[in-house]
């Protein structure tokens, strides 16, 4: 009865707004990108545009590119976090409900967060960008599921830009045209980047275009640039590698004479160390290529805070490693 | 370098896990006879706190650093267990359950909190729960073998004392043996073996290696020395079988297979063991009824 009274209802709404302001004003760790940063210094009133919460750094970057300065973007998972095993906290639920729009990566990348997101999607503007991609361009992994790491193929990821633009246009119609033109411009930049990366990959000797990493996040990358991709772990980081898998990889690396294997920033590298040792025992020295960014962009100050910079850094490391120029 | 036609990695993993399996069986026997089978479980759950703590304190994540942290936490957890039992009149099983629950809760809190507190490169610490058997390197295997030898030697040297306390602590106390000290040695050895077993099979499964082979061995013999040796051998065989099976087929995690192999030995023991086995008992019943 008391709860039903209009005064109490207003009080609740007020409190919710207050919490929302607080959350929006909190410094967002690992998410201060090149554009749209320093939301902490700016009072909430001044931010005219929508407040968007992205799940991963990769998605946050996409929203920033499309939204520009008008949009305040914060990001749920900091750089370096493995989204497959991320466990949502109650504070995350608060942050989710405080945002005007929630953008997720989708295709089950968010693991345990997915259930919360799904429920949220019924009550507030929500979009999972990769879920909107045409199914025939996705890589199936069995059980009706698809590999979620679509951002490693710029030709595919650029299709997500208009998806974000439309979602932003819906919550902020005043700037709809601005969002659409920024999305078109960003897609163009990704296409140009794709062209450049293709050229760099082609400088690797054809029989050495094999990418051995800790878990296979790079299948879209491999398909886009004709690089054979072999992971020690499965697509998700949740499973332990078997001894048979390691033996098989040692075999592959030794017989093909692969000069380098790679570790990822968000995955443990013990499997790769065992692989190196197995190859050394058979007289083949495998270098450790640079660290590749997989499920998360680089943190602040890493020089890889945007997807474009991250892709370029990955390709530079791969090219150096597979041409045998990796620093040892 | 290949031996017996086995690939290098298979060999390394087999040696490391077999050493842990043997020593865990030997040390575990004392624990099981002392009716403290779950001490290993308490130690195992406490290690996660130590792993996260060591990473927090040093920022390093190499095996040695993390294992030192894990050992300190395991010992602290077991000390807490003894204190709770001593000062709160809590029963053995309840005290063990408290330590398991609290340390696991604390461990998970630390591990899941690390990334949010800015320790971005903490990914994979949770894998200590699962172990990374297949990823053992030669240095790891050597470390594990060394620890296993140490534990086995201590048990051999203190065979009379530990056996006495394990079988009849009341009698040992009455005749003037330092029961508390000997208990501490047994529990300390369990902590050491659990920590050594972390990288070999993971925190969750290492308990099984401390308990299953001794219980299986108990079915075959009444002699203490035979039981220790048998339990060790069973642990070793389980380790080798698990490793070989995991190497033979793709996508089979090694740690769980080791424990499943131990469970198979356990099952065989309880069906086929003379006197205590199921078949032997049926035969006795039949003879009595005839």
Quick structural overview:
The complex is a heterodimer of chains A (328) and B (290). Chain A has 11 helices and 10 strands.
What is the architecture of chain B at the second tier of CATH?
Orthogonal Bundle
Radius of gyration of chain B: 20 Å
**What is the radius of gyration of chain A computed over CA atoms, rounded to a whole number of angstroms?**
21 Å
The strand line-up of the biggest sheet of chain A is 2-1-3-4
- Assembly status: heterodimer
Order of helices and strands of chain B: HHHHHHHHHHHH
- Strand percentage of chain B lies at under 5%
Bin the helical content of chain A: 40-55%
Which CATH class of chain B applies here?
Mainly Alpha
The amount of beta strand of chain A, in percent, is: 5-15%
Record the SSE blueprint.
The complex is a heterodimer of chains A (328) and B (290).
Chain A: H1 6-25, E1 51-54, H2 57-67, E2 72-75, H3 90-98, E3 101-104, H4 113-121, E4 126-128, E5 140-142, E6 145-146, H5 154-157, H6 160-171, H7 176-201, E7 210-215, H8 219-225, E8 228-233, H9 243-256, E9 260-264, H10 270-281, E10 287-292, H11 307-322
Parallel strand pairs in A: 1-2, 1-3, 3-4, 7-8, 9-10
Antiparallel strand pairs in A: 5-6
Helix pairs in contact in A: 1-3, 2-6, 6-7, 7-11, 9-10
Chain B: H1 8-33, H2 39-58, H3 63-87, H4 92-113, H5 138-157, H6 159-167, H7 169-174, H8 179-201, H9 203-218, H10 224-248, H11 254-272, H12 278-289
Helix pairs in contact in B: 1-5, 1-6, 1-8, 1-9, 1-10, 2-3, 2-4, 2-8, 2-9, 3-4, 3-8, 5-8, 6-8, 8-9, 9-10, 9-11, 10-11
Give a verbal description of the structure.
The complex is a heterodimer of chains A (328) and B (290). In chain A, the strands form 4 sheets. Chain A has a 4-stranded parallel beta sheet with strand order 2-1-3-4, sandwiched between helices. A two-stranded antiparallel sheet of chain A has the order 5-6. In chain A, strands 7-8 form a two-stranded parallel sheet. Chain A is globular, with a radius of gyration of 21 Å. Chain A is 43% helix and 13% strand. Chain A has 2 domains: 10-194, 3-Layer(aba) Sandwich (Rossmann fold); 199-322, Rossmann fold. Chain A has helices at 6-25, 57-67, 90-98, 113-121, 154-157, 160-171, 176-201, 219-225, 243-256, 270-281, 307-322; strands at 51-54, 72-75, 101-104, 126-128, 140-142, 145-146, 210-215, 228-233, 260-264, 287-292. In chain A, helix 8 (219-225) links the parallel strand 7 (210-215) and strand 8. Chain A is of the alpha/beta class and 328 residues long. Chain A is built from 11 helices and 10 strands. In chain A, helix 2 (57-67) crosses helix 6 and helix 6 (160-171) packs antiparallel against helix 7 (176-201). Chain B has one domain: ABC transporter involved in vitamin B12 uptake, BtuC (Orthogonal Bundle), CATH 1.10.3470.10. Helix content of chain B is 77%, strand content 0%. Chain B has helices at 8-33, 39-58, 63-87, 92-113, 138-157, 159-167, 169-174, 179-201, 203-218, 224-248, 254-272, 278-289. With 290 residues, chain B is mainly α. In chain B, helix 1 (8-33) crosses helix 9, helix 2 crosses helix 8 and helix 6 (159-167) crosses helix 8 (179-201). Chain A binds chain B through residues 29-30, 77-82, 85, 87, 89, 234, 237, 239-248, 250-251, 265-271, 273-274, 277-278, 281-282, 299, and chain B through 1, 7-10, 12-13, 112, 115-116, 118, 120-121, 123-124, 126-127, 130-138, 202, 243, 246-255.
């Amino acid at each position: 009865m008391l709860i039903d009274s209009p005064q109490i209802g207003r009080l609740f709404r007020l409190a919710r707004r207050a919490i929302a302001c607080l959350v929006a004003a909190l410094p967002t760790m690992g998410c201060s990108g090149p554009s749209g940063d320093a939301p902490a210094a700016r009072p909430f009133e001044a931010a005219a545009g929508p407040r968007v919460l992205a799940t991963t750094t990769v998605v946050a970057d996409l929203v920033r590119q499309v939204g520009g300065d008008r949009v305040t973007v914060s990001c749920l998972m900091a750089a370096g976090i493995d989204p497959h095993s991320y466990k949502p906290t109650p504070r995350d639920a608060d942050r989710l409900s405080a945002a005007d729009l929630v953008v997720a990566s989708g295709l089950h990348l968010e693991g345990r967060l997915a259930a919360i997101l799904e429920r949220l999607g019924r009550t507030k503007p929500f979009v999972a960008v990769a879920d909107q991609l045409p199914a025939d361009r996705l890589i199936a992994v069995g059980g009706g599921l698809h590999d979620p790491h679509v951002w490693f193929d710029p030709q595919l990821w650029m299709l997500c830009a208009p998806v974000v633009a439309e979602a932003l246009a819906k919550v902020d119609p005043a700037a709809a045209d601005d969002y659409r033109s920024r999305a078109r411009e960003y897609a163009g930049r990704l296409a140009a980047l794709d062209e450049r990366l293709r050229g760099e990959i082609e400088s690797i000797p054809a029989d050495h275009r094999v990418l051995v990493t800790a878990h296979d996040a790079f299948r879209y990358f491999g398909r886009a640039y004709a690089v054979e991709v072999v992971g020690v772990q499965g697509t998700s980081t949740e499973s332990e590698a078997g001894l048979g898998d390691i033996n098989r990889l040692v075999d592959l690396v030794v017989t093909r004479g692969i000069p380098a294997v790679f570790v990822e920033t968000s995955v443990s590298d013990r499997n790769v160390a065992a692989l190196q040792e197995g190859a050394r025992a058979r007289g083949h020295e495998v270098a450790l290529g640079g660290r590749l960014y997989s499920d998360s962009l680089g943190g602040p100050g890493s020089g890889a805070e945007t997807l474009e910079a991250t892709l370029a850094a990955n390709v530079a490391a791969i090219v150096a490693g597979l041409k045998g120029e990796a620093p040892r | 370098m290949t031996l017996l036609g086995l690939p290098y990695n298979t060999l390394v993993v087999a040696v490391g896990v077999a050493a842990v399996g043997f020593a865990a069986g030997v040390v575990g026997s004392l624990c099981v006879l002392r009716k403290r089978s779950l001490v290993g479980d308490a130690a195992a759950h406490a290690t996660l706190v130590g792993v996260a703590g060591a990473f927090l304190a040093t920022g390093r994540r190499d095996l040695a650093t993390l294992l030192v942290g894990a050992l300190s936490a395991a010992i602290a957890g077991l000390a807490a267990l003894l204190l709770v039992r001593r000062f709160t009149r809590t029963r053995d099983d309840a005290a063990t359950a408290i330590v398991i629950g609290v340390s696991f809760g604390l461990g998970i809190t630390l591990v899941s909190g690390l990334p949010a507190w800015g320790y971005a490169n903490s990914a994979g610490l949770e894998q200590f729960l699962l172990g990374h058997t297949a990823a053992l390197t030669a240095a790891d295997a050597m470390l594990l073998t060394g620890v296993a030898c140490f534990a086995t030697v201590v048990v051999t040297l203190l065979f009379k004392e530990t056996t006495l306390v394990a079988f009849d602590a009341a009698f040992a106390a009455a005749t003037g043996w330092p029961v508390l000290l000997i208990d501490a040695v047994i529990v300390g050895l369990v902590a050491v073996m659990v920590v050594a077993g972390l990288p070999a099979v993971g925190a969750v499964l290492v308990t099984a290696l401390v308990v299953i082979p001794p219980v299986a061995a108990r079915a075959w013999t009444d002699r203490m020395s035979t039981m220790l040796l048998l339990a060790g051998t069973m642990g070793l065989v389980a380790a080798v079988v698990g490793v070989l099976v995991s190497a033979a087929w793709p996508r089979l995690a090694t740690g769980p297979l080791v424990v499943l192999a131990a469970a198979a030995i356990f099952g065989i023991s309880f069906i086929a063991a003379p006197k205590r086995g199921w078949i032997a008992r049926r035969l006795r019943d039949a003879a009595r009824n005839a």
